[in-house]
Structure formats: C-alpha cells, structure tokens
Amino acid sequence: MGSHHRPGRPASRQHLGFVNPAIYHIARGPAYHRAFHDVVTGDNSVLWPTGVFTGDTAGPGWDPVTGWGSPNALYLVPLLAHTARSGA
User: By the 8 A CB rule, do 79 and 35 touch?
Assistant: First the structure.
C-alpha cells in the first residue's frame, strides 16, 4: 500500500504497522463500499494451448480473484490510520 504522505505536509512519523486486521475490520463494516470498489464480475481463468484452466470467479464482498476489491485510498487510508491509532 502506498504512503499516506501528501506533498506540502510534513510526513507522519506514525507507522500503520500490520494492516490486515484493520482492513478486514473496515471491509466487514458499514464503510466497506466507500473504502473499496467491489469488483463483482470476471475471473482468473487461463487459456493454455492444451485447454482452459478454470479459475475462481469474482463476486460481491471478498473473493479469491480480487480480494476486497480495489482500494479507494482517499477514504481507506484515513480509516486505516484511525483504526491503527485506536487499536481496533
């Protein structure tokens, strides 16, 4: 995940640390659809010369193809910083 530093502002000295618990906490809560763009269509199947390797299919919420979806950094990064400070 990219840095939370914004040009023109002093860099924060607080590290987010291990963010997986915070990401799951946010994604399972009411802020999910603001913090992530849920990818609900598509798959990761592969066409080989010998045939098609059928992969997983994307769907609502977490899935093995896209995880929680693509992050909306403008909303997610402040939530992660708040969650890291509060210990949630």
Answer: yes
Structural domain spans, the chain: 20-86
From the list 73, 63, 70, 75, the residue with the least C-alpha distance to 38 is 70
C-alpha gyration radius of the chain: 17
- Which residues have C-beta within 8 Å of that of residue 5, sequence separation ≥ 6? 11, 12
**The pLDDT of residue 86:** 76
Structural element, H or E, at residue 47: strand 46-48
Torsion of CA 77, 60, 66, 5, to 10 degrees: -10
Please list the rounded mean pLDDT of every run of 10 residues in the chain (88 residues).
53 69 93 96 94 95 94 94 75
CB 59 within 8 A of CB 40: yes
